[in-house]
Specification:
This protein is an alpha/beta fold and 329 residues long. It has 15 helices and eleven strands.
């Protein structure tokens, strides 16, 4: 005769199933819960060495130490993903800060700057540089950055992109602003051709493209953004920013940044991680100038305000002037 289970024992499998479903739905804020009881944080990014702390933290298990799983979602343009963070479709965006971000926040877009990312070193060789046509330099038409007044300069994403602010910073010491030049939107991969054909007088590409242009005799760097210039970082949707998962995410990122201080920027193990994450060849990365990262990845309020001012001067902002409180959180 079959053995009859007690009511408590017969209900146990059902109870366990219900508890498992509840646990799966308990991810913090906008983060999805995972089977181990942690949270999955969805991060939109454009693969770049600018965002090295993200890749180091992921590869070395720093997110896992915090009980997080990070799901990296590659996008073509980081700024296109900002509304996704505002609506909770992703939790974080690692991207350059554009004029669109300032306009969006002024109009109520629910995102906040949570951390900074790669900053300019201010010295040559620099990871980003204002490359000037060698033909113009050889002819004497251009001798200094000030001679670029009225000329066309290539910036990926155009004047309102993060590169627009980097260009403004590079031109500042020559007494020029974004209004004094004509900024044209040219993809990084097309800048060398644009310089060679004379369709632009200068371009602002990142390394290793800078090195390739110089070695080919196409251009010479004439200016670089001053040390500490930063126009990229981590954006959180405001709902996710208030969750424990957001704080854990930042702790792991900072541990990744700590590994990139001093000689860590060129450590072979770290370069291998970056090669895998960005799709760049390891040999290229060994000779590519590195960015710098604040160990705490703190949002750089001064840079944000300077960036807003540069976009205002260029007539790119149509909303109210923002304060640090509006942007950072």
């Amino acid at each position: 005769m079959p053995r009859t289970l007690s009511p408590v024992r017969s209900a146990l499998p059902v109870l366990l199933a219900v508890l498992a479903l509840l646990a799966a739905g308990c991810g913090s804020g906008g983060a999805d819960g995972d089977a181990a009881g942690g949270s999955t944080v969805r991060v939109a990014h454009v693969p770049s060495t600018l965002f090295a702390p993200l890749y180091i933290a992921e590869a070395k298990g720093y997110f896992k130490e915090q009980g997080l799983r990070v799901r990296l979602e590659t996008v073509k343009n980081g700024q296109d993903a900002v509304p996704l963070a505002a609506s909770g479709k992703v939790d974080a965006v690692v991207a350059g800060f554009s004029a669109g971000l300032f306009n969006g926040v002024a109009k109520g877009l629910k995102v906040r700057v949570a951390a900074s990312m790669g900053a300019a070193t201010g010295a040559g060789p620099s990871p980003s540089a204002l490359e000037v046509s060698q033909r113009l330099l050889d002819s004497g038409e251009v001798r200094t950055a000030a001679d670029l007044r009225g000329r066309r300069i290539a910036v990926s994403g155009g004047v309102g992109a993060a590169g627009g602010y980097q260009l403004a910073a590079a031109l500042r010491e020559s007494g020029l602003t974004l209004k004094d030049v004509t900024v044209v939107d040219v993809a990084f991969t097309d800048m060398r051709t644009a310089l060679s054909t004379g369709s632009v007088a200068a371009a602002l590409p990142p390394a290793p493209l800078t090195t390739a242009m110089e070695e080919a005799g196409v251009s010479t760097p004439l200016a670089v953004p001053p040390r500490g210039t930063v126009a990229t970082g981590v954006l959180f949707g405001t709902r996710f920013a208030a969750t424990p998962a957001a704080a854990k995410f930042l702790r792991a990122l900072r541990k990744g940044a700590a590994d990139l201080q001093g000689t860590g920027r060129t450590a072979e193990a770290n370069l291998r991680i970056l090669a895998r994450a960005t799709g760049q060849r390891l040999g290229v990365l060994r000779h590519t100038p590195s960015y710098e990262w604040d160990p705490q990845l703190l949002p750089d309020v001064r840079q944000l305000m300077r960036q807003q001012a540069a976009y205002q001067d260029a007539g790119l902002l149509d909303g109210r002037a923002l304060t640090a409180r509006d942007l950072v959180g």
